[in-house]
Amino acid sequence: MKDRRNKRKKKKIVRKVLLLILLVLIIAGGWFAYKTHKNGGGLSGMLATAVGHDQNTKKNLKEIKVLLLGVSTDLDSQLTDTIIVASYNPNTQKANLLSIPRDTFTGKNKSKATASQKLNAIYNYYRDPQKTLDAVNELTGLDIEYYVLVKTEALIKLVDAIGGVEFNVPINMYYTDKSQNLVIDLKAGTQIIDGEKAEQLLRFRHNNDGSSYPIEYGDNDFGRMRTQRDFIVTTLKQTLKPSNIFKIGEILDIANENVETNLELSFIKDYIPYAVELNADNIQTAVLPGTTPDLSETNRVSVVVIKEKEAKELIQSMFYPEEDNKENETNTNSNEIETSTTVTDPITIELINGSGDKTKLEKAKKVLEQAGYTVKKTGTTSSISKTIITNKKDVSTENLKQLKEALAVGSITTNKVSNSLVDITIIIGKDFE
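Predicted structure:
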């Protein structure tokens, strides 16, 4: 009898303990759900709650600027052939990717240029990313504090870790270099890119026969920089999918082994909950404008000299648009301007057919002209999947958005060309209907 009573008491105690645990879980779950809702809900809200944020945390986060450096470690030299300034603002959910030509001249006198004065050679000489960061800040006038140097192996492993990246390879690529043990063999079109193919894609400049990207895309290095930016955007978008959250441990291990950075994890984690909601359409991409002088002017060394005025204007529009808006508001308020009628010059467009369908060129031309745009030039190029809208001059973000709405498709990029005869180049892809 006594044993039975003891067993009943134990059962009651166990039940009470289980009920207490269940109650605690319900309360904790309710609290977590409440905090998640307060933090905006969804995956972003869950992650923000998990790292201890409240509804005011995001408001206090500033735009972050980072210098991304990609280095191939399978060569004797370690040149940073991928150089991109990246920024992200969690409050506006906007980001920028600004490519800087690897051959950018960093010296003072171009007539005495040496190969070691190219931007991509600085890391190879000092083995210190901070030196490259200092040079980029001097070239651009930006106040970048952070760098992330990524070895080739990191990209290969990351792409494989997330199961490959679906990407539209813009052209057929075939190039071999026995000295580098490099074979690039990719067909144009949308496909799954694994780690090995990713390395081929990002290192490609031209084919064995000398052919490269079409002029309107950006040939040789400019084409490669564009492909690099597009692939980074696509990889980020696919890495931040909810299904990859469970792979975060593997992704962090890859980063620890192959990434050199002065960013602290405690700092990065504040931005991650909001970065998962970044829309790829909100990423503005461009290349720092420069010119390639004749070799007779640069001591027979091929370098890119930055166009200071155009570069300053591009950087202002990408990284400091708020200051432009304030200046415009001040100018408007200080002058008596009649705003009832606004006269603007028509935006001129170069329309390139990359859809593979002749009828789509005429259809796109008709759509644009009905929307009030002037199509000055037309042409054809190799087939691409996605429509690309390239800002060649100083077309405003609002006008670019309106243009995209008129076509109902298109990703927007910036590649300012001072002597361009048109404001915008559009390559119509297969997605245009």
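Summary: The first helix runs from residue 2 to 38.
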